[in-house]
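pasting for ref
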Amino acid sequence: MTPYLSFDRQQWAELRNSVPMTLTLEDLKELQGVNEKLTMEEAVEIYLPLARLLNLYIEARQNRNTVLQQFLGNEGNPPPFIIGIAGSVAVGKSTTARLLKALLSRWENHPKVELVTTDGFLYPKKTLNDKGIMEKKGFPESYDIKRLLTFVSDVKAGKPHLEVPVYSHITYDITDKVKTIDRPDVLIIEGLNVLQSGMDYPHAPHRVFVSDFIDFSIYVDAECDVIEQWYIERFLEFRLGAFTKPGSYFSHYTQLSKDEAIDKARSIWRSINGINLSNNILPTKGRAQLVLKKGQDHLVEQILLRK
């Protein structure tokens, strides 16, 4: 017994139903993350059918909103359709989010698509240090949940010109910049914690969670040992790239040899990110309406769609 319908690549690709690919290879290169393998074949066979499915959900919600507005005699702005994308660090959820944003923005009935990551709602480094939880960055307690919930609630209420904090992966901290979200047709929220609910925190002081506002949820999945290897490979890429940039919080890692860097990455994974995955992220997978299961080559091998 399972609440999901299961599709392999070929079965899923057939559901594309002639939806055209509107992105080029150059577009895909700009959208993919570090250590990702986003091919045109992957975009066409996996993400075009997903974009079609999401468009059908969005269209149905828009029709329902129209009926409700007519019934209430209300001409206000309808709420946006909110898509939540969850998954582990290094699993590729950011690439999935950027690609879906690019694809969905090409549809005429919802051209205004915005993407927000929950990284912007992490507490600043100073606050994390003061709380003594710097080593638990990414864990539930490291987020300003009240601010995140207020933002999502305001978006759903149709409030204009909402400001979102911007996080820097270079300085490993919240910046002084903000991103303005102004009544989008579709909002994609990507982060480790977007599918967590009251079931995870029965003693939480608040009774509302981000998942309560999400209209369609996606979990990007892979075997834990595979994600650990991807994390190590990404760490090595960062060691030669992002860690070398001026002001990088992790610049000291550039002095490590390759073997030392591998050992450090594995240590960080097993003491922080792997634990967060097992305890806080993976348990939310069963709440997702769609699961993208990746293989070792970063390509999606199986799609699970809730019945």
